[in-house]
Recover the amino acids of this structure.
């Protein structure tokens, strides 16, 4: 495991006055990104086999908010997803400063490089689930943390499916943030991972640029309507005056809204 800070040069928090925690045998200070490697779990090994890729490790990255120095207290966790073929660890930087300001930790996972068509929802979940398994073994308290899955464009689609998988595994889903999203993957996640009825009570926040030619208000409205038709009970759509880009203010609003509408924790399976 190694610590690096170059990934996020615009971080708003420093670590000079923060006490260090231990993540395994390594120190992790709030405001500093820690990159680590974990062994693939059984799910990941299956997906790697399907992709005909050999890999002995999966990469993860974690950053804690300022002031979080006590594992006996709960922490909120934002998990970032990116489109197929992208790096979630590189892509997490766009959302990290917002999350840290709101008191959320941020986690991302990357598997080995594969062809875009091979980087499926199931493949991505295999890689992320390996990192989550490691987090839960290292810090068992994390299983009770409120978790939000978030992404933009293709990452927004993937975040909805990841949220379904995590709900199935008993993680405490507090919300899903989908920016620039033109496809309902929450309903697909429901079919793929059978998370149970609690998933449809998880708050879902859709963010759309008014001049976005890819996922503007109209196609995003279709996504919202599809989710509502599937039985999702708490779907919110907001727009901003711009094109196809991540809108940080909406992530801030979503994180606050999720806490106001946080569902009760699912029973771990």
């Amino acid at each position: 495991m190694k610590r690096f800070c170059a990934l996020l040069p615009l971080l708003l928090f420093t670590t000079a006055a923060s006490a260090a925690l231990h993540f395994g045998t390594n120190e992790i200070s709030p405001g500093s990104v820690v990159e680590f490697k974990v062994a693939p779990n059984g799910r990941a090994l299956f997906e790697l086999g399907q992709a005909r890729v050999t890999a002995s490790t999966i990469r993860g990255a974690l950053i804690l908010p300022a002031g979080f120095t006590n594992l006996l207290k709960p922490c909120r966790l934002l998990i970032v997803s990116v489109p197929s073929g992208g790096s979630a660890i590189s892509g997490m930087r766009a959302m990290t400063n917002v999350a840290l300001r709101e008191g959320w930790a941020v986690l991302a996972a990357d598997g080995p490089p594969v062809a875009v068509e091979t980087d499926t929802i199931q493949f991505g979940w295999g890689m992320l689930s390996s990192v989550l398994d490691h987090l839960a073994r290292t810090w068992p308290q994390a299983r009770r943390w409120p978790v939000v899955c978030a992404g933009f464009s293709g990452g927004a689609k993937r975040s909805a499916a990841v949220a379904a998988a995590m709900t199935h595994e008993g993680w405490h889903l507090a919300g899903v943030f989908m920016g620039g999203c033109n496809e309902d993957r929450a309903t697909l996640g429901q079919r793929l991972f059978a998370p149970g009825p609690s998933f449809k009570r998880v708050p879902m926040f859709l963010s759309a640029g008014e001049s976005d030619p890819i996922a503007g208000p109209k196609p995003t409205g279709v996504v919202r309507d599809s989710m509502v038709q599937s039985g999702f009970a708490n779907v919110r759509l907001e727009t901003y005056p711009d094109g196809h880009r991540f809108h940080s203010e909406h992530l801030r609003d979503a994180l606050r809204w999720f806490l106001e509408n946080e569902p009760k924790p699912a029973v771990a399976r």
